[in-house]
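S., here's the first fold you wanted:
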Amino acid sequence: MRPDTPAENVDHTAEAARLERTAGLYPEDAEALLLRAAAHLELSGDRPAATALYDRLLSSAEGLESPALVRALKASNLWEYGHEAEARAIIDGIRATAPRDPAPWVIIAESLESHDELEAAEETFTEAASLFLPQGEDTDPTPATHPLLYGRHRVRRMRGLPHDAWDTLADALHTSPVPLDELHDPKRLWSLGSDNPAELVAEISRLRAELGAYREALSRPFPVAVLHWPAPELAELLSAYPSLATEYPSHEAHLTTIESSLRELSMSGTANLGIVTGTVPSYEAFAASEASSPGDATLLPQYATTLAARGRAVAWPPERGAECWCGAGAAYGQCHGAAN
């Protein structure tokens, strides 16, 4: 529903404007496009403009797929910039009409929760659970209902209430290695929002201790890896990011550079060498995670190291008689390893 890209990576105002223009061209998709545009406006800080888009949608509510969802988003947005009374009125209206879509329930319950209305949030989550997952019935929860159960579990944990059947069901549905009871531990939730430095330091220490297992898993040696782009991937990369042409003047030169670099590293005494194969989608995702542009050549060695750390490296040199790493199909000794 809402874009996840951090504000510093996207011009949310421009993106909202683009989505509004697109909605004008494709009226059959206007609801989804304008909801995304409103989300971008909220992220940009222009909440009044987001409200205007929600109102625009609601003015033609008969054609909306989910008017209750639009109203819920509007209420959540209004409360965030000081229109609490209007937001509460909309929330009460949604609860009274009991929409048969879990999403509006989740939004209004989380809005209540975010403003410390824990009892009202729990009541709202419970109303929705009763509607979609009646206790005593052997109902298989759909994925859309999972956030209801998780949110209800979280709020009840914050209120110190004992588990009931729905909480047990939430525990059963939750597949993360960290149990819901631990994730929703009120001490942890409160400490993360605390202004007390001592509480924050204590929570940081706990998180560091919990990450110990992950550090241990990542602490094993991984190869010093060189990045290899197959010919089709390199062509796609250079087409999308021409600035990288200085790094890769041709595919043949790229392959030659890989082999010569690995030989130099080996002669200098560097052990555990390897080759990782890149793909454009993977590289773009990595660049986004680094809040950088894929056209930045300094990201390339970081990308190679990340792939190696994830176990994607193939040892160099290949074993005797094995195919060459370049993918041509010839034996390494008859291909790039011929001069070894």
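And the second, which I think is the more interesting of the pair:
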Amino acid sequence: DVDGTPVQALFRDAEGVKLLPEVTRAAGWERLVYCLVVNNLLEMAEALGERYPGMELWDAVRRELTRCGEELPEAAELLRAPTLPGKTNLLLRWTGADGADARYLPVPNPFG
């Protein structure tokens, strides 16, 4: 807005990955957590914290995930998890693997 406060967020897509019938719910959730939290929310929290020192994004996200917890049990698990999935993009490039063959390594959970 005119005061410089963010009023819109644009999220990167899931890089063309389709959740096909053979993809398990757990694998689909892992991919969603990586795309939404690791790729987008971590970057937004960093950018907002730089521009507005002391601004806390994680409390707002935690409230929304808690609100969704009854309908989406994975949301409650996400809040308790010690780590989140971080995709090994550089390894994919070096090995020439397809994005659907992604491997994940744990990164610290900002909700922890």
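Why I say that: The two ends are 32 Å apart (CA to CA). The mean pLDDT is 80.

Talk tomorrow,
H.
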